[in-house]
Amino acid sequence: MKITIREEGKYTAPGEGVGVFFEDLNYDLDGGLYAEMLENRNFEAKDVHGEWDNYIVENDGGYGWTPTGEGVALKIKWDRPLFIENPHYLRLTVQKAGEGVKNKAYDGIYLQKGMGYTISFYARSYDYKKKLWVGVLDGGKAVLAKKVRLRPDGKWHRYEFHAKSRVELDKASFEVRMTEAGAIHLDCFSMMPDNAVKGIFRRDLAEMLRDLKPKFVRFPGGCVVEGNNLENRYLWKASVGQKERRRHNWNRWAVHGVCPENNFRTPFSHYGQTLGVGYYEYFLLCECLGAKPLPVVSVGIACQYMSTQFVPLDDPALEVYIQEALDLVEFANGGADTVWGRVRAEMGHPKPFGLEYLGVGNEQWEDRGNEFYKRFELFEKRIHEKYPAIKIIGTVGPTVDTPSHKSAWEWTKENLAKNPDFVYASDEHFYASPEWLYRHANMYDDYPSNCRVYAGEYAAHVPGSGCAGFNAPQANLWEGALAEAAFMTGMERNSDIVVMSSYAPLFGRLGYTQWSPDLIWFDGKRAYATVNYYVQQLFSLFTGNVVLNTEAEGGLYASATELEGLVYVKVVNPSDKEVEAEFEGDFDFGSLTRIIRMAGDPAVYNTIDEPEKLVPEDVAPTAPRSLTLPPHSFHVLIFHK
């Protein structure tokens, strides 16, 4: 089968290419990338349940905390709070020495041998003068703990200590035990490992992101940006400043999957957002990764899958949303003499972050009188009046091949005809079967040249594998990843149209996941890359900035790019038969220096215990112009011109 690669018609890709999309779902921030090890550390948890436009939010500040034994009373209070933004705290009363309270910490504390940990908390004591045992215990014995003496003056005080673990220990317990009977107030616990990147991010997960070499990071959503109702939307201003003062918010994904069969309450009804990682930390993450930030702001429409709420176009309250977008650009790019640039500088980053992109809305579409098109035009006008260089990422709805998708593109094209800078690109989402991805691998061949696309959320959903459901790591099949690779060759060939792309979702914590498949799975101890991760990585690492004209026959899928004398060719053979591929072109292929292959049973997938069932492997280079393609295989070939 021939694969023809020509320089005729080649062009320089204008966009960023492969990035990542980080949304706070699947416990991938609190309990995941945020290295904080304790759960509900400030007693602000909410229990959320209900259905469309009728969500019930109940304070459940004691969630995740339980007595260590009998004679212990836990009471959540809010009079004379430590921080008014997060007013709830714990009153701990014990009737005998040696008892106290312990934290769930998701699946328990994992200690690494030789690792240091910083533990801190706030306490208020009126008459308790003895010490507390605070830290990690195993079977009631202190492993990483210290006795801390409280000041009995009726005021809140912060206590902190550092300790190093001498053992490796999994599923241990974080506890506070009083050394005599009495009562105290507690709030704002923290336990952070020394190896957290910038003291914020869990190292193994951050390093897996780094190894993807993403060109950009879209954050923090997704549906989280919209909220299940407008009150629940992500407020970026509440996510900056002192961490203890960042107001806790319940997570839209706490009610994903509610139905009569589960009494409109899921196992994740306490899923919340502590905002320990907020917009400032997201920008720092982008710096760490060498990726450009792509924050997303609300346009005053709640998640259209879960709510009918929106701010009417003639409501003065809409100005708040527009100002939030403008102030965000100032926070990222403004000098220290501006209001929000000063906030950034005071947090430790005097230099602007250099924001280029801004997502306006998520999966919005014209519906139920929300006048989305007119409101987007208003946002675009106001943003570009003040910040003409900002590249706005628009949206054409949550799906493709639908009437709303067609309508959105017609509206977008009309505006682009009047103003080429109306949007830099429009965000398309598709969670589809492998068959759909193969059928549509060439769909961007026919897009108008002035209609740029950000493929912001996509993944292959293999029927019957548990896709779009809870806790289904088996959904990350090679069958799906191979189809994604084929589709990505189409995006790469059309890099003048598809200027940005990102798989979704990014992370999933085992046992805590609302949506599958996910690119990276983890628990409290380990993490592993899926076969889908390696496909994304290969496209990210081995892509040039010049796109060559590529054609493949016989059911193969291929793309080719060039960078500084190297030609990167990607080839997918989705069939169950071995195929002989022959390369032709209008230039000298020169030497074939490297071949990277992924091939295997379509039903294979990596697991936490077997993380390398299928990974990329180098194979010996063959003759430059031919290659045997095993069944169900994906290859990256690197030629010297």
TrEMBL record:
<comment type="similarity">
    <text>Belongs to the glycosyl hydrolase 51 family.</text>
</comment>
<dbReference type="InterPro" id="IPR051563">
    <property type="entry name" value="Glycosyl_Hydrolase_51"/>
</dbReference>
<keyword id="KW-0732">Signal</keyword>
<dbReference type="Pfam" id="PF22848">
    <property type="entry name" value="ASD1_dom"/>
</dbReference>
<keyword id="KW-0325">Glycoprotein</keyword>
<dbReference type="InterPro" id="IPR013780">
    <property type="entry name" value="Glyco_hydro_b"/>
</dbReference>
<feature type="domain" description="Alpha-L-arabinofuranosidase C-terminal">
    <location>
        <begin position="456"/>
        <end position="633"/>
    </location>
</feature>
<dbReference type="InterPro" id="IPR010720">
    <property type="entry name" value="Alpha-L-AF_C"/>
</dbReference>
<dbReference type="Pfam" id="PF02018">
    <property type="entry name" value="CBM_4_9"/>
</dbReference>
<dbReference type="GO" id="GO:0046373">
    <property type="term" value="P:L-arabinose metabolic process"/>
</dbReference>
<protein>
    <recommendedName>
        <fullName>non-reducing end alpha-L-arabinofuranosidase</fullName>
        <ecNumber>3.2.1.55</ecNumber>
    </recommendedName>
</protein>
<keyword id="KW-0378">Hydrolase</keyword>
<dbReference type="InterPro" id="IPR003305">
    <property type="entry name" value="CenC_carb-bd"/>
</dbReference>
<dbReference type="GO" id="GO:0046556">
    <property type="term" value="F:alpha-L-arabinofuranosidase activity"/>
</dbReference>
<dbReference type="Pfam" id="PF06964">
    <property type="entry name" value="Alpha-L-AF_C"/>
</dbReference>
<dbReference type="InterPro" id="IPR055235">
    <property type="entry name" value="ASD1_cat"/>
</dbReference>
<dbReference type="InterPro" id="IPR017853">
    <property type="entry name" value="GH"/>
</dbReference>
